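User: I'm writing a tutorial on reading structure tokens. Could you give me a worked example: one chain, its sequence, then its tokens, then a sentence or two explaining what the tokens reveal?
Assistant: Sure. Here is the example chain.
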Amino acid sequence: MNFIWKPNPLATVVELDENDVHHLKTAIRLYLAQNALYDAYFALEKDVYKDTNEESIWRCAVAVHDWVFGQESDDPIEEKVKRAVEELKTEHLGDCTCTPCRCMKCVFENMIGVNTIKGLNKHMGVNIQDAFHAHPNRTTREAVLVIRGHVYERRGGWLNRSQEEYDSCVPGWKKEAEAAAQWLEAYADEHFPGQP
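And here are its predicted structure tokens:
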């Protein structure tokens, strides 16, 4: 396994060797098996789907059948592995950056037992994402300055709320931004020690 650390930590690339890909393939198979078992379990819970007993058994059988026969061919798994390998080369985007969706990079990193943004929470993540968004070629230290120099303006949906409500949120946002700046400084010290 090889890590290509980027000035934007959310864009760090994880490259896999043959053994890592095999481990990832096994992890994906286990993940799919777990999902099939959950599907079967919930299919048998009559309160979930309001099914009759016969319908519940049929729904359970379909869930298990789809998993079992989906394993006979490596094609579906190979496609999932290929997607995962590509995803590990992209930028984090999802729950880890306050975006309302699952971050697939986080999912696949977790499957192979790594975390390229360890210690970063979603509020820190969105600050870092914003610092690099318009200027992806910034250095890590420049991004720290951008985060610390952010000017808070009431705009967008906040125009429909009171100034007092907006002002009450600003101290929390500043605290989150400072935590992101400190995390980013530690990241720069570790991965780019000579960077001004």
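What the tokens reveal: The chain has a mean pLDDT of 88. The chain has eight helices and two strands.
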